Fold:
Amino acid sequence: MIGLATLSLFLLAVLALFLSPGPNMAFVLSHGVAHGPRGGFAAALGISAADLVHTLFAATGVTALVAAWPPSFDLLRYAGALYLLWLAVQALRSGGGLRLGAQARPAGFGRIVRMALLNNLVNPKALLFFMVFLPQFVDPARGSVPLQLVQLGIVLSLAALGFNTLLGACSGQVGRWLQRRPGAEKFQRGLLATVMLALAVRLLFLDRPVPR
Structure:
């Protein structure tokens, strides 16, 4: 089991990470503005689910195997960039299968969850983050290392869900306010497409880690 002191330090580190602007924050904010609080929560749920998957990959050694094959980094980032570009195009298309703001439908909720999940899973930086970050708080003297990694990952995922849900709710209120303004739907779609495009460009220009 993880010690209380280690867990407290871990939560402080996680909070500092959450407060630093990054792709997850941008994804939640943009979907909250575009689809309301429900859309922000859907994005938060998808990101937390991806965190759990990354945790399992790190605990079972899958991440280490992927990282050991140099081309995997480029394959993941190119796939992620293409996916984000596709999302940007979908956001600009009329209809796009999603309703905005207060008009969001349950089907749109599930789709946003899947988009957030896949967007996180194809981000090679997220994959490497879990491989590097979680082990720093593991103490082999306290028992099974994989079990401690899973415990830390669950804590991180729950904390991320709470933080991103709050973030999505706040941005969702902005989206509802915009919904009452003329031309709001076009602005919301444009904002979402711009964020997805920016995230795609970011992935394309990520530096590949140098083996040590």
The chain has eight helices and no strands. The CA atoms of residues 37 and 170 lie 7 Å apart.
